[in-house]
């Protein structure tokens, strides 16, 4: 059996990570795959996600606050480092639950995930050759040109830090109008359209900033593909699967016995 394909779901707090992990697990299961869900968020209060492996078994934010007499912010940081110390327990649990896919829900606060050395250690310990980061664009931010550019830069930072293939997802598209979705996707497909939108959006034109942003956007063009998804109406889940499969198998066709039903 192949090493499982691992997908880390990351993005700003509230972007929809936990909901998407839940929805994608059920999509995979329906399509005939086994999926293990790992919760790496020691502060998770989700009652909908039932992880197979839960970091809270070893590290809980509330306990860290109490034990080290820390406020919520300090405890988040301490907990992120304590999580790294439990990575071999997680790895051991994963090896006992061999499955086709591993879906990892990451801490709610992206800066803890993106900027702590401990998360780098965790990813290095858990990732094999078949790993992918799904970076979630929250539509509340992504629908404005400056928010879109900021998310793009954050996603590029995550890719730069972890050196794993990174795929950008626009979440909660059920909350957007088709015209809004189309506009956001057009920014992802055409750097020129994004630069125009950024310029239109600036209260007072700033030539120096504009040209700096323009160069940054142009150089990020290869990272700008964006897949629209919704955990509500389940759109984008099959394309997410196909993309992951392509990354994991280097573009080879699926084994017929594993191919999900054609949704036409
Ligand atoms: N309408 C809609 N709401 C969503 C969707 N995904 C998540 N939400 C809501 O957005 C909020 C944050 O979602 P959550 O999955 O907890 O985000 P996380 O902090 O990134 O894990 C919750 O209130 C969810 O119900 C979606 O696809 N559509
Ligand atoms: Mg969450």
Characterise the protein shown here.
- There is one protein chain.
- The chain is α/β, with parallel strands linked by helices and 264 residues long.
- It has a single domain (5-257), classed as Rossmann fold (3-Layer(aba) Sandwich).
- It is 50% helix and 13% strand.
- It contains 12 helices and 7 strands.
- The protein has a 7-stranded parallel sheet with strand order 3-2-4-1-5-6-7, sandwiched between helices.
- Helix 10 packs antiparallel against helix 11.
- The protein is globular, with a radius of gyration of 19 Å.
- Mean pLDDT is 88; it is low at 252-259.
- Bound molecules: guanosine-5'-diphosphate and magnesium ion (MG).
- Residues 17-18, 41, 44, 46, 105, 108 line the site of magnesium ion.
Write a short abstract of this structure.
It contains 12 helices and 7 strands. With 264 residues, it is α/β, with parallel strands linked by helices.
């Amino acid at each position: 059996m192949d090493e499982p394909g691992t997908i880390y779901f990351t993005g700003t707090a509230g972007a929809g990570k936990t909901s998407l992990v839940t929805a994608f697990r059920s999509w995979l299961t329906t399509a005939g795959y086994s999926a293990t869900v790992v919760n790496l968020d020691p502060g998770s209060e989700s009652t909908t996600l039932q992880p197979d492996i839960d970091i809270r078994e070893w590290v809980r934010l509330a306990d860290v606050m109490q034990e080290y007499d820390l406020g919520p912010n300090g405890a988040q940081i301490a907990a992120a480092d304590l999580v790294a110390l439990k990575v071999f327990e997680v790895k051991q649990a994963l090896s006992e639950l061999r499955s086709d896919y591993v879906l990892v829900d990451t801490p709610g606060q992206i800066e803890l995930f993106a900027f702590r050395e401990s998360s780098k250690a965790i990813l290095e310990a858990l990732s094999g050759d078949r790993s992918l980061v799904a970076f979630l664009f929250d539509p509340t931010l992504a629908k404005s040109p400056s928010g879109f550019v900021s998310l793009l830069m954050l996603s590029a930072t995550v890719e730069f830090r972890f050196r794993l293939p990174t795929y950008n997802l626009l979440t909660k598209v059920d909350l957007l109008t088709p015209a809004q979705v189309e506009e956001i996707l057009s920014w992802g497909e055409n750097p020129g359209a994004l630069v125009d939108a950024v310029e239109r959006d600036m209260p007072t034109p700033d030539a120096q900033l504009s040209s700096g942003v323009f160069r940054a956007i142009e150089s990020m063009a290869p990272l700008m593909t964006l897949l629209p998804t919704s955990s509500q109406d389940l759109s984008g889940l099959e394309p997410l699967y196909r993309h992951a499969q392509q990354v994991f198998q280097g573009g080879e066709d699926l084994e017929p016995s594993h191919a999900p039903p054609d949704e036409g």
